[in-house]
Each structure stands twice: as C-alpha cells, then as structure tokens.
Amino acid sequence: MRRALAAVVLTASLTACGGTSAEHTITVFAAASLTDAFTAEAEAYTKRTGVHVRFSFAGSQDLVAQLNQGAPADAIATADTATLDKVVAKHDATALFARNRLVIVTAPGNPKHIGDTGDLARHDVVVVLAAPTVPAGKYAAAALQAAHVTVRPRSLEDSVRGVLTKVELGEADAGIVYTSDAKSAGPKVSTVALPTSPVATYPAAALDAAGQSFVGFLTSIEGQAILARFGFMPPP
To answer: What is the pTM of this model?
Structure first.
C-alpha cells in the first residue's frame, strides 16, 4: 500500500517537474549508513527530474532531534521505524524502502583472528560500537544479547559511520556495522558474519509536497536497483 502510494506520488511529481524545476533543490535528512547509496540515488533522481538533492547525513536520532527543533527538510530516511515515529512534524507518503543486516568489521586480513561475536569479548580486542541511542547500536546490542556475549567497547559512536571510520583508521580492532557500510569500505576492512544480526528496516517520509517525489523514487525500480548495488536488501 505504502509503495503503491509512493509510486503514484512519483509519477505525478515527475509529470509536474517539466523544464522549470532545473534549479529547484530539496533537502533530505538521511541516516549515516545511507551516505553512499543516497548520493547515487540523488544523481539518478536529478537526472530524471532536474531537481537537486541536498543531504544532511547523521545518526537517525540526531536527525529527528534536529527536525523536532525546527530544522528545515523536505524528507527524512532513518534506519528504523521507531526513530521515525518520534518525528513531531506531520509527514506523508511514508514508505519502507530497504533492509539491512549487521556484520563485524576488522582491519584488512583480520589480524586478530576474530571468528565470531565471542571474540569481541576478548581482552586483546579493542571494539567500538554505535551508541545505544543509534539504530545500529540498538541492533548490535540485540545481536550480542542473542549470542549471550558481553562486550566492553572502547567507545560508543554517534553514528555507524563513526564505528567504520575507527576500524578503518586502526583505532579499533573490530566494530559492528551494516553490511552496506562494510561494502562501501571495500578493501579497507575485512568482514565476519554476524548470524544473530536482526534485520534493520529503513523507512522514509515526505515532510512536505517537495519531498514526496524523492520518497517515491526510492521504491521505484530504478531506486531499488541502486540500493541493491550498495548492499541493501529490498523492503518486505
């Protein structure tokens, strides 16, 4: 139902764009884990509509806090539905557009020989995680609890990209990030499967008419192909 609504909105918006919208710009708040995929989405969207997209990437909880404090945006995409539900502003055309799983990332070649979540509790392994207020942090905590593993992280980051960066820079031996983040890092990290990972669900909401077309684009065939290229799974 939501995807059907979004598709209708997309069709109507594309028809309305015409030649006068080339200089129009919309602002989209998006979870940090969407950075690479949404940059590609924006390029394709601008090519199709002539509408440019300006992003603010951060932890989902920070984005919602900014919106609730009056920051202007046309649409928002978060890494879980619970965080999006905290948006005070009226929003329409909400759509689930992607899913994701968690993995353990290590230095290239996995020099500490981390094989599973149990190794994250070793005293010789420096671990960083996303903070519990961040969707990635909540998902990681759930995965560790399901594995009956207690980890004492060196730091708690305010976004999942903060976790990835510390592992890439060698400031941590391991961290838990989304599959899409690990894919974006390429050879800068090695990955270890996390069988107890819950599935993260990504919703997007238009905050005004200007954002409805972009939300619809995310669930279009073209938008979904871009997300898949960056390691995201399709919505349920």
So the answer is: 0.85
